[in-house]
């Protein structure tokens, strides 16, 4: 675009080398021969460079590929925590369901309603918030720290990722359906309210243990101070921890407190009048007994400086106890 104007600055400029030039009507890569014909060699060189830049960019893109490569370096690591079981003074949890939500401690139970882990898990799978350090959606991994060659602790932020094989442990929920009249007995009590309770047999390696659920109040209809009578088909869901019998041994207490019973009830004919002819049978109910099973093993994990997992766990070897 500027070359014709540059030619007009001189005297006796020919039209075919100035005002008649149509360089701007073509892309730079196609102006080379016209510039050489007009003896504008500098312009031809500039257009040739534009052509080469396009050719080389396309040609070299298939030769040079940019990618990231891991550079592994050995690192000394230590664990500040021991993975072992120790005796505690008392039971492992609340002695009664009445203690849930309170601040009274009992053995390893420090009070509270125990809902924090459920809120964290829900926030993770609904909003993608990160899980706590040294955990994934299945297991907890024994934390470790790293040191330099002199044995001093290294600032976590100085090392982007660290990979090591460590111990892992967690729990798996084992559930099985109960058979009414054999390993469970359920009943409904109708008075000023409708209450349900279940007696469950919990098998252990030292024999069966009899446990009972808390008395659960069933409130038909919308939640209100006064129960509502329902005329249509009704259903209820029950969840309860189990309590041992009076004067139970510690073995029996542990077996009952480590078991949860869940039940589903239905009544096709409604509940009017309140609780009429309401019984629990095999045809209108189902009960499930669930017990956690401890799992331990090893796994290879990769964590960042804060201890959060940055890659799917590898080489997981976990056995149930």
Summarize the structure.
This protein is an alpha+beta fold and about 325 residues long.
What do you see in this structure?
The protein is α+β, with helices and mostly antiparallel strands. 17% of the residues lie in helices and 30% in strands. It contains 5 helices and 12 strands. Strands 2, 4, 5, 6, 7, 8, 9, 10, 11 and 12 form a 10-stranded antiparallel beta sheet that branches. A two-stranded antiparallel ribbon has the order 1-3. β6 (194-204) and β7 (207-213) form a beta hairpin. It is elongated. The protein starts with a helix and ends with a strand.
Q: Per DSSP, what share of the residues sits in E-state strands of 2 or more residues? A: 25-35%
The strand count comes to: 12
The domain tally reads: 3
Radius of gyration: 38 Å
SSE pattern, N- to C-terminal: HHHEHEEEEEEEEHEEE
Major sheet characteristics: 10 strands, antiparallel
Spatial separation of the terminal alpha carbons: 83 Å
Gross morphology is elongated
pLDDT < 50 stretches = none
Q: In which range does the helix fraction lie?
A: 10-25%
Average pLDDT number: 79
Oligomeric category: single chain
The assigned structural class equals alpha+beta
Total helical elements: 5
Please render the helix and strand layout as text.
Layout: H1 3-8, H2 32-37, H3 41-61, E1 76-78, H4 116-127, E2 140-141, E3 145-147, E4 162-177, E5 184-190, E6 194-204, E7 207-213, E8 216-218, E9 234-244, H5 250-257, E10 260-267, E11 285-303, E12 314-320
Antiparallel strand pairs: 1-3, 2-4, 4-11, 5-6, 6-7, 6-8, 7-9, 9-10, 10-11, 11-12
């Amino acid at each position: 675009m500027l070359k014709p104007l540059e030619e007009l600055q001189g005297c006796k400029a020919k039209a075919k080398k100035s005002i008649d030039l149509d360089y701007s009507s073509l892309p730079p890569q196609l102006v080379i021969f016209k510039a050489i014909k007009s003896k504008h060699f500098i312009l031809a060189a500039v257009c040739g460079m534009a052509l080469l830049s396009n050719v080389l960019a396309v040609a070299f893109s298939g030769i040079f590929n940019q990618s990231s490569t891991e550079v592994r370096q050995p690192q000394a690591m230590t664990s500040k925590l021991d993975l072992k079981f120790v005796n505690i003074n008392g039971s492992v949890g609340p002695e009664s369901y009445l203690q849930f939500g309170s601040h009274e401690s009992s053995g390893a139970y420090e009070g509270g309603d125990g809902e924090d882990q459920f809120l964290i898990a829900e926030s993770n799978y609904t909003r993608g918030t990160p899980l706590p350090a040294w955990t994934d959606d299945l297991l907890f991994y024994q934390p470790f720290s790293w040191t330099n060659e002199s044995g001093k602790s290294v600032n976590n932020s100085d090392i982007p990722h660290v990979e090591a094989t460590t111990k892992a442990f967690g729990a798996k929920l084992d559930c099985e359906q109960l058979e009414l009249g054999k390993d469970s007995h359920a009943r409904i009590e109708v008075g000023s309210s409708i209450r349900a309770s279940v007696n469950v047999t919990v098998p252990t390696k030292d024999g069966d243990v009899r446990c009972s659920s808390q008395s659960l109040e069933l409130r038909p209809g919308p939640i209100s101070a006064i129960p509502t009578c329902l005329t249509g088909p009704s259903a209820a869901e029950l969840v309860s921890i189990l309590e041992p019998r009076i004067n139970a041994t510690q073995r029996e207490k542990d077996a009952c407190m480590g078991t949860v019973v869940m039940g589903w009830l239905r009544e096709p004919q409604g509940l009017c009048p309140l609780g009429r002819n309401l019984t629990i049978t095999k045809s209108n109910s189902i009960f499930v007994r669930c017990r956690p099973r401890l799992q331990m093993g090893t796994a290879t994990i990769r964590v960042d400086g804060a201890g959060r997992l940055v890659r799917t766990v590898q080489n997981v070897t976990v056995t149930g106890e």
